[in-house]
């Protein structure tokens, strides 16, 4: 449990904001920059961060900010399953991670300044309900740093339909030594169209977005022929699927005013 100064809910006051795998440079640049800017505007008070999907979380630059005397408390939660349990056992910095059903995890309403949700939505069921709970746990003016594998990408299609051995080969190439791959669920929310519609309906401001993987680059290379396979699938889909990217990054802000609009 969190120390008295932290918001109620699963927490680790000294926990780092990364699960141990190195972030892609573009991801680090975007999310670290946004975290740094938010913390700079909170001088004199503690900043509460939640890593939802902690075993696939990426660095938000918390260690550097703490070294600069910023007061930050980080909480860690994830689903309970064989892959996440193996990841927690592998990484000591995840020892305080709470595993369980994210639909019922104890989250304090408006308890967090920043929530990181990286590579989580595509591997869980009831993704919209889980995201609703995460949004409810963000303070007005706070940030959701969201990373999804896009179900409308050719890579997302391959992830859903490739045999397990090929999925494992791609995972091992990109995440050597890490437990995985995670389940490939990919509900409608886990797509660029799904996030756009969700943000509009929930009144969230999309501050920045960025594409990764596929033709956009920015991810570790997959096995030989993986990009060619994406292009082939995209072509055969008649435009329904894209090889332009594999993943999307979003910086979403929970507005302080109910009259805010998406940028």
Summarize it.
The protein is α/β, with parallel strands linked by helices and 263 residues long. It has a domain of 168 residues: 3-Layer(aba) Sandwich (Rossmann fold), CATH 3.40.50.150. 31% of the residues lie in helices and 19% in strands.
What is the fold's blueprint, element by element?
Layout: H1 25-40, E1 47-52, H2 62-67, E2 72-78, H3 82-90, E3 98-99, E4 112-118, H4 127-136, E5 138-149, H5 154-161, H6 164-174, H7 192-202, E6 205-212, H8 226-236, E7 247-253
Parallel strand pairs: 1-2, 1-4, 2-3, 4-5
Antiparallel strand pairs: 5-7, 6-7
Helix tally equals 8
Task: Work out the helicity level.
Answer: 25-40%
* Sequence stretches where pLDDT stays below 50 over 5 or more residues: 1-17, 19-25
The CATH topology assignment of the domain at 25-149 and 185-219 and 246-253 is Rossmann fold
- The chain-level mean pLDDT equals 90
Biggest sheet features: 7 strands, mixed
Rg from C-alpha positions?
18 Å
Fraction of residues in β-strands: 15-25%
Overall CATH architecture of the domain at 25-149 and 185-219 and 246-253: 3-Layer(aba) Sandwich
Estimated structural class: alpha/beta
Order of helices and strands: HEHEHEEHEHHHEHE
CATH class (first level) name of the domain at 25-149 and 185-219 and 246-253:
Alpha Beta
How many extended strands?
7
What is the strand arrangement across the widest sheet? 3-2-1-4-5-7-6
* Distance from first to last alpha carbon: 37 Å
- Spatial shape: globular
CATH superfamily of the domain at 25-149 and 185-219 and 246-253: Vaccinia Virus protein VP39
